[in-house]
Amino acid sequence: xxxxxxxxxxxxxxxxxxxxxxxxxxxxxxxxxxxxxxxxxxxxxxxxxxxxxxxxxxxxxxxxxxxxxxxxxxxxxxxxxxxxxxxxxxxxxxxxxxxxxxxxxxxxxxxxxxxxxxxxxx
Length: 122
Fold this sequence. Notes:
Layout: H1 4-23, H2 33-42, E1 73-74, E2 78-79, H3 82-90, H4 92-95, H5 108-118
Antiparallel strand pairs: 1-2
């Protein structure tokens, strides 16, 4: 029988490692969550959205992005997935014509990194 303390330490290590991987962005999605957080600041997303973890991001024009990584839909219509989120960020008018979010000129790579960051908000 294995030492119970050793089992506890191994379990804690696995849980911590899993949490660290999750914070890096969604599984099987090419995007850099750390760079995405910087891009959220660069593109001034907080001017319209309240975004946890981003200093000064307290906008109230768009919806708050708390727990966006757990929501079922984007804009109430689009199935929430990392790819759909990146498409939405890159060109929200293509994704859902006539919605209130403007095109921000965000290229695909930046949109994928921002989406990876947003998926850490759970």
